[in-house]
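call fold target=DUF7674 domain-containing protein
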Amino acid sequence: MLSEQESIEIMLKLFPEFKDKLEEHRDSWGDNKYEFGLEMAQFSSLAYDKIKSGTEEDIIKLADFAEQMLADGNEIVRWAVKYEYLENITNNDGERDFPIERFTKKLKPLSVEFCKELDKGWGTKTTGIY
């Protein structure tokens, strides 16, 4: 099982530019303890920007990251990827200038399954999942 730290290392390997945002986020907490899910939420912000204006390679890396974390992550990592990454991204469906299908069309089975669970709970149909 991949730990939270291993997940962060994978994020940074895939997107080295995330390091500054991550460090800024950690610095804002000072000596207070922060949750790993908040770091995943920061990564979802980077993902949002990449989905809007990144390369196809970026989008594939983001989709593959989600699937790897759902398949191989520990319980904390899987929860964070579901609710702080995938849900954050899919919550932007319907935003005028957000091309969510660039991302959802590249999701793998575990990610699609979770997005369908979210849709069932919210009574929505995320663009590109169906």
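return ok
The helical segments are 4-14, 18-29, 36-53, 56-72, 75-90, 101-104, 109-122. The radius of gyration is 14 Å.
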